[in-house]
């Protein structure tokens, strides 16, 4: 795992673009949970960065595909393939992922 941010860098309900293992990733903080997902829609390769987050999923802002924040599983068309998720931990105010 690598240090990717400090907890103070991301407000509750916020998101932060980071790089993990040379992959664009999105760190998402919802309530007391942290998620780290690949920041690319598996349907068309566009970023998920600004997609709405609700019910434990993120929706692609272009075509509406949804992905589970916990598993990366594609939840609806037009996406049929999952996105990558990364392990994420908070330690002493630092966020580690990979």
Question: How would you summarize what this structure contains?
Answer:
This protein has 98 residues and is mainly beta. The chain is built from no helices and nine strands. Helices cover 0% and strands 42% of the residues.
Write the layout of secondary structure elements.
Blueprint (H helix, E strand, L loop, with lengths): L1 E5 L8 E6 L2 E8 L2 E6 L14 E2 L2 E3 L6 E3 L19 E4 L2 E4 L1
Biggest sheet: strands side by side, in what order? Answer: 1-9-8
- Quickly name the level 1 CATH class: Mainly Beta
Q: Helix and strand string, N-terminal first?
A: EEEEEEEEE
In the CATH scheme, what's the topology name? Rieske Iron-sulfur Protein
Round the mean pLDDT to the nearest integer and report it. Answer: 96
Biggest pleated sheet: 3 strands, antiparallel
Write down the overall geometry: globular
Q: Judging by the overall fold, what is the CATH architecture?
A: 3-layer Sandwich
Strand content: 35-45%
Tally of DSSP helical segments: 0
C-alpha termini separation? 5 Å
- Unreliable spans are none
CATH fourth-tier homologous superfamily: Rieske [2Fe-2S] iron-sulphur domain
Helix content: under 10%
Q: How many discrete structural domains?
A: 1
Radius of gyration: 13 Å
The helix/strand class is: mainly beta
Number of strands: 9
């Amino acid at each position: 795992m690598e240090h990717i941010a400090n907890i103070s860098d991301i407000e509750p309900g916020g998101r932060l673009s980071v790089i993990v293992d040379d992959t664009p990733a999105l760190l998402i903080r919802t309530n007391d949970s942290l998620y780290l997902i690949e920041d690319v829609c598996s349907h068309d390769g566009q970023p998920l960065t600004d997609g709405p987050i609700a019910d434990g999923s993120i929706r692609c802002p272009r075509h509406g595909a949804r992905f589970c924040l916990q598993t990366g599983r594609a939840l609806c068309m037009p996406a049929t393939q999952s996105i990558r998720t990364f392990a994420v931990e908070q330690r002493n105010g630092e966020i580690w992922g990979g």
